[in-house]
Amino acid sequence: MSEISSITAENFTDNPVIRQMSNLGHEQILFCQDANSGLKAIISIHDTTLGPALGGTRMWMYQNEMEAINDVLRLSRGMTFKNSITGLDLGGGKAVIIGDSKTMKSEALFRRFGQFVNSLSGNYITAEDVGISPDDMVHVSRETNHVVGLPGKSGDPSPVTAYGVYVGMKACAKIQFGTDSLSGKKVLVQGVGHVGEYLVKHLTEEGAIVSVSDIQQDALARVSGKYKANIVELSNVYDTDIDIYAPCALGATINDETLSKLKCSIIAGAANNQLKEEAKHGEQIMRQGIIYAPDYAINAGGVINCFSEVKGYSSQWSHNKAQEIYNTILNIVSRSKSENIPTYKISGQMAEERIMKAKQAHAK
Ligand code: NAD
């Protein structure tokens, strides 16, 4: 039996987690541990003003617990912004399971996690994220109803995400080129995975001149062959003369190095956390005359699809809601132009405005 060491009043007031929660406005954190299954998880609820907090569960081998806490705080806050700007009646939340997703998964671990999700009585709704499969979520669902993205229900969100990126890209084109037609526009899609391939399909159907890049040669050959897209070598992605750059692979591809080279006038893609340093690179993009569609606003098709499952899944509803990303991006970019403020900042303000209005309505 291990010794219990006390937390003193002195070190409690200086608790870095509680300080960080109040700095970022988080409502609740649930630390979960279960020795039998080896579960170590953290569920973070950032804001439930607009509705229950929805956000995926990530399984990752964090270096230490503080790294996991910082990640879950950052990701859950990001979900509040994404759900708000998308006009969903959802708050922001996220969960992380600390562990190796290749070796530490078990039915017991996910069922125990499901019990913790259930203990929040629907204040947090979970879904898949990095390191988690639909089968894992089936185990979770045996312990709680507060889970979406299950097999046979809303299914793969990628087609809806790709559609949202496509219409959001058209909104950027409307402002940058005066027309939202992408016909004849040179678009480079970086990453032809689940989302990238569907995006290439929409773009080629509209007559865009599409080029593709990927680290997986087989995916690259298949997609470029199927849609007659040009292949761009990995080393040439940021030197190629294009109109639109669509990052659909990794985050942080917009950074000092790439911004000094990028030859495009629009950045619109599905990848999360595209700006390496949000404030610095968000400002720099605007100074270079490039329109940047904020990632969490343009890639919201996935969460739209999940939300549809909460309401009783309808693919038509998901499609229609994803179509609204066109107007969301148009509003963000128009306001950015007229107020001379970078798009990342405008989108944050718009998300916060919606939450403030709801808070005021609740107070009445
Ligand atoms: P995916 O894993 O299916 O596809 C990613 C592709 O990028 C893979 O083919 C991979 O080989 C490729 N890739 C990796 N590194 C690369 C590099 N350096 N250069 C070029 N290609 C590279 O993932 P996905 O589901 O298509 O998601 C793509 C991005 O969109 C991710 O950042 C994801 O977080 C984000 N996103 C996805 C969804 C969704 O519905 N799937 C929703 C919102 C955001």
**CATH architecture label of the largest domain:** 3-Layer(aba) Sandwich
Q: For the CA atoms, what is the radius of gyration?
A: 21 Å
Q: What gross morphology would you assign?
A: globular
Return the average pLDDT rounded to an integer. Answer: 95
Strand count, sense and closure of the main sheet? 6 strands, mixed
Ends apart, CA distance between termini: 52 Å
Q: What is the CATH C-level name of the largest domain?
A: Alpha Beta
| Strand percent estimate | 5-15%
Ions, cofactors and other bound molecules: nicotinamide-adenine-dinucleotide
Query: What do we call the CATH homologous superfamily of the largest domain?
Result: NAD(P)-binding Rossmann-like Domain
- How many helices? 15
Parts with pLDDT < 50 across at least 5 consecutive residues: none
Describe what you observe in this structure.
- The strands form 2 sheets. Strands 1, 2, 3, 4, 5 and 6 form a 6-stranded mixed beta sheet that branches. A 6-stranded parallel beta sheet has the order 9-8-7-10-11-12, sandwiched between helices.
- The protein has helices spanning 9-13, 16-24, 65-85, 107-119, 134-141, 158-177, 194-205, 217-227, 256-259, 278-287, 295-298, 301-311, 315-323, 325-339, 343-363; strands at residues 28-34, 39-47, 53-54, 57-60, 91-98, 124-125, 186-190, 209-213, 230-231, 244-247, 266-267, 291-292.
- Helix 12 (301-311) packs antiparallel against helix 13 (315-323).
- It has 2 domains: 25-69 and 91-153, Rossmann fold (3-Layer(aba) Sandwich); 158-352, Rossmann fold (3-Layer(aba) Sandwich).
- With 364 residues, the chain is α/β, with parallel strands linked by helices.
- The chain is built from 15 helices and 12 strands.
- Helix 3 links the parallel strand 4 and strand 5 (91-98).
- It is globular and about 65 Å long.
- The longest helix is centred in the first third of the chain and has 21 residues, at 65-85.
- Nicotinamide-adenine-dinucleotide binds next to helix 6 and helix 7.
